[in-house]
Amino acid sequence: MEVTAQQAFDIEKIRKDFPLLEQEMNGKPIIFLDSAASSQKPAQVIDRLNDYYRTGHANVHRGVYQLSQEATTAFEEARELVRQFINAPSEKEVIFVRGCTEGINLVASSYGRKFINQGDAVLITAMEHHSNIVPWQMICEERGAELRVAPVNDAGEIDLDALYELLDERVKIVSLVHVSNALGTVNPVKAIIDRAHELNIPVLVDGAQAIPHTQVDVQALDADFYTFSGHKMFGPTGIGVLYGKEEWLEQMPPYHGGGEMIKTVTFEKTTYNELPHKFEAGTPDISGVIGLGEAVRYIQSIGYENISRHEHELLVYATEQLEQIEGLRIIGTAKEKASVVSFLVDGVHPYDLGAILDKLGIAVRTGHHCTQPLMARYEIPGTVRASFAFYNNKADIDALVAGINRAVLMLK
Amino acid sequence: MNPINSIQDEIIDEFAFFGDWMEKYEYIIDLGKSLPLIDEQYKDEDHLIKGCQSQVWLHADEAEGKVSFTADSDAVITKGIIALLVRVLSGQKAEEIAKADLYFIDKIGLKEHLSPTRSNGLVSMVKQMKMYGLAINAKSQ
């Protein structure tokens, strides 16, 4: 009998893959609704890490002995898995970094030192995470360049006309978020990339919140740089990926100096290693990379089609249910949204709501979500954010709604 | 016994009557709601202690080596805990404030609200209260 994708997606079976979902918090079964901050890990990833440290650990790229060669093979296999996963043309373009933040810092620093000069500009948007603001502020200050910010509308969508208005030949790079961590907005990155390319301006996409939810094809997007974190896509913390087009990476100076990234060293002159190693100084996070490879395998075993469908159902259900709570206002009502719902309840501070939900075993994020300028745009101190992964179910949302009702009763 | 500790012990005794966290939180929320803690004129940038989660305003007055505090927060649970901290420290001798060991927070089971990771402004506020105590004590010697 043919098994349809829908049948193959068994939420109860999937939940059993995540040991943490069986834990308690404050004596209550945990309702984990903070995957946008960091996702939980399936047993497959945890077991792979355990297995690697128990049976396969040695330093990579330098030992002549078998164990080191095996570790190197596992490490480079993971790179190939990631390459296929995002459809990068070459593994030279897949650089392992500590996370999305480091990916952006690497490009801001290396690309910036080479290509950004006095009087140039960098264009970002008003919905960026601090990690896609501060690195650009730093390089702009250093190089005497201007940081331009494209505004967002009340619904939480980029004002595209305004963005295109700001896009001129002085702009040396555009850096924007694919999916907003605070609002859930899915940005039309492909259209923005095409427009920037008409002026030969490269684009970096912060994909930290996109990759856990949606298939990313860097060639279809034609992104010049695309970066994301492993820990938000069911992999280990401390590992992430920077994809960059070879033509840019070749021209950029190294970011960090040290072992691995060199070809020859004398006190007079060092020549640098080939891509991707030129940007991977020092012993890499070997277990992190191997764990990330396993996370890629896990996502593929479930399938983005299933993930997207299930999460969209959760988003629609959560939005409907939350909107029924009196005085609750959803912040971020873009037409295209990922499974993130940010909200406020009239007369209730997000911290108070979060503190009571915590006691009920419900993990949500409260505060400004590292997007202070965006919160300032909406003139709010912060929000409560519930974010869903494919391992969440409608019962989680019901528990959230009941928790909010109970908290509001106490607080009002 | 030093007056700061006797107030702390009083609070610990009061909290012993609460059955569960709900009752504790309800009490703290009531404290937060009922107390006008700070003169509106002091709710400005100069008196603001910014936390990631909630904000706190703190004002100190000195008279005869004793420090009185008024404070406020935009979050009501934070404000309720502030009310307790003010009850313990306000009106005490500067020297005593500077060296106070605020054990009651842990004993009444609200330690998590005074953890730096909560980033609600309370940790900085306590530090600031002690700084006032230290500074005023140093000045008077």
UniProtKB/TrEMBL annotation, chain A:
One of its GO terms (biological process) is cysteine metabolic process. Its cofactor is pyridoxal 5'-phosphate. Its EC number is 2.8.1.7. The keyword Lyase does not apply. It is an enzyme of class 2 (transferase). It comes from the Bacteria. InterPro entries: Aminotrans_V_dom, Cys_dSase_SufS, Cysteine_dSase, PyrdxlP-dep_Trfase, PyrdxlP-dep_Trfase_major, PyrdxlP-dep_Trfase_small. Pfam families: Aminotran_5. Residues 31-400 form the Aminotransferase class V domain. It catalyses: (sulfur carrier)-H + L-cysteine = (sulfur carrier)-SH + L-alanine. CDD domains: SufS_like. GO terms for molecular function: cysteine desulfurase activity; pyridoxal phosphate binding. Gene3D superfamilies: Aspartate Aminotransferase, domain 1, Type I PLP-dependent aspartate aminotransferase-like (Major domain). Keywords: Pyridoxal phosphate, Transferase. Catalyzes the removal of elemental sulfur and selenium atoms from L-cysteine, L-cystine, L-selenocysteine, and L-selenocystine to produce L-alanine. Belongs to the class-V pyridoxal-phosphate-dependent aminotransferase family. Csd subfamily. PANTHER family: CYSTEINE DESULFURASE, CYSTEINE DESULFURASE 1, CHLOROPLASTIC. This is Probable cysteine desulfurase. It comes from Phaeodactylibacter xiamenensis. The lineage of its organism: Bacteria, Pseudomonadati, Bacteroidota, Saprospiria, Saprospirales.
UniProtKB/TrEMBL annotation, chain B:
InterPro entries: Fe-S_metab-assoc_dom. Pfam families: SufE. It comes from the Bacteria. Residues 13-131 form the Fe-S metabolism associated domain. Belongs to the SufE family. This is Fe-S metabolism protein SufE.
